[in-house]
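ok so i was messing around last nite and threw this chain in just to see what happens. nothing serious, just curious
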Amino acid sequence: MIRNELLEILVCPENHTRLTRADGELVRRVNDAVAAGRLRNRSGARVEEGLDEALVREDGAVLYAVRDGIPVMLVDEAIPLDQLA
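result:
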């Protein structure tokens, strides 16, 4: 799990807005979309690995995966959440 101290200083690399922990319901919806093969990251690659933890941008538009406690803060790896609609 990502530490609170780190979360306080992390911002979206694209627009520099705050990030918060994705709640369990959002992580579940993302994982359902991954399992169904219908989720792509910003670069267009299919997201193939489910998430235990993620960070969501303040506006709720983009999600960043956290892998082994390390946030993947690459714009191309970000997951646009409009795909869940």
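not much to say yet. Residues 24-35 form the longest helix (12 residues).
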